[in-house]
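Worked example 2:
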Amino acid sequence: MGPRQRDNAKALAKRDDAAKAITPFEAASATMQQRGERHLGRMANIVEKTVPHVEAMEPGAILDRVDDVERLDKVARRTFGISETGLPADQVMINIAILGQ
């Protein structure tokens, strides 16, 4: 390989390395997405732990705490991407990994 070919190969390798580098915005965006996914996983865990407790309550006790039950339902719907109609919300992706925890 001659000096010119070697220089061309080095320039090409540098260009490939630069193309692989991520911008600070991309790094921050990825970090925020990871934090959001962790938060959703934690909220899903809370909902999963809390709903059986509510189901075990006597009907009168549930009615006495209906505002709390309604709030739990709202959190669950938002966390699992379910609209008020019970159908999947528009443009919401449910992370299957979160549901598998």
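Helices lie at 3-20, 24-56, 59-64, 66-80, 96-99. Residues 6 and 63 are 78 Å apart (CA to CA).
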